[in-house]
Specification:
The protein is mainly alpha-helical and 219 residues long. It has helices at residues 2-7, 23-36, 51-58, 64-68, 79-90, 94-104, 108-120, 127-148, 152-163, 169-174, 182-191, 210-217; strands at 12-16, 43-47. It has three domains: 2-68, no CATH class; 79-147, no CATH class; 149-217, Winged helix-like DNA-binding domain superfamily/Winged helix DNA-binding domain (Arc Repressor Mutant, subunit A, Orthogonal Bundle). It has twelve helices and two strands, in the order H-E-H-E-H-H-H-H-H-H-H-H-H-H. The longest helix has 22 residues, at 127-148. The N and C termini lie far apart (56 Å).
Length: 219
């Protein structure tokens, strides 16, 4: 089928969203990776997923094309674009759209969830009325998974970050029972894309309502 498409002048692209390592996926990618090396075939591959799930494939000896591929790491969504889309699609004024945008912190899943909840809210409901449902969806569908992926030491480190009023790395380190493990924990959480260390000497967690999640359920 691929060769027939190529012969007819078509390129073939396989796109997989939210990819994860399973035996069937490894088998499929092994076959596809072999074809990628065939110069006679005009085929391409693109996938999206959590960085950890992408990295899981690089350990497979027959999936070396994952190591050679060019990864694109996505950051937070643009807050102005979010507000603009909310204003356009939800038929609300600029002030309301900005308020919604701030509640997402640029987190793509939060953008989808909040927009859907607001779109489907009853006419007499306000933004405050849907926030509890917003929390429930974020907490159960996203944050529970994130929290379970952390070790006990990483979880405690997250608690210290969220409890810090300054966000200064030095203050957080002082609160640790074993400060010598600071660099290792920081690097591990940074590699998991959970913390923001772009501002020198500071650490933050930018997920919306994540502080409330930890305080309510994991304090």
């Amino acid at each position: 089928m691929i060769q027939k498409a190529n012969d007819d002048g078509y390129n073939v692209l396989v796109a997989i969203d939210d990819i994860a390592r399973t035996p069937d996926m490894v088998k499929f990618l092994s076959i596809w990776g072999t074809m990628l090396l065939d110069d006679r075939k005009h085929i391409y591959f693109v996938c999206t997923g959590l960085s950890k799930n992408i990295e899981d494939f690089t350990a497979e000896p027959n999936l070396t094309f994952f190591k050679r591929s060019d990864p694109i790491e996505t950051g937070p969504l643009n807050k102005y674009e979010i507000a603009s889309m909310y204003q356009k699609l939800l038929n609300i004024d600029e002030t309301g759209a900005v308020e919604l945008s701030k509640l997402t912190c640029g987190y793509a899943y939060a953008y989808q969830v909040l927009g859907s909840l607001y779109f489907n809210k009853k006419q007499n409901e306000t933004l405050q009325d849907i926030l509890s449902e917003y929390d429930k969806v974020l907490f159960s569908d996203s944050y529970d998974l994130i929290w379970r992926s952390l070790t006990d030491a990483e979880q405690q480190f997250v608690r210290l970050i969220l409890a810090s009023s300054s966000g200064k790395a030095s203050d957080i380190k002082e609160q640790m029972s074993h400060p010598s493990g600071y660099d290792s924990l920081r690097d591990r959480l940074r590699n998991k894309h959970l913390i923001n260390t772009q501002k020198r000497g500071y650490i933050s967690i930018d997920l919306p309502r994540f502080k409330e999640y930890v305080q309510l359920w994991h304090s």
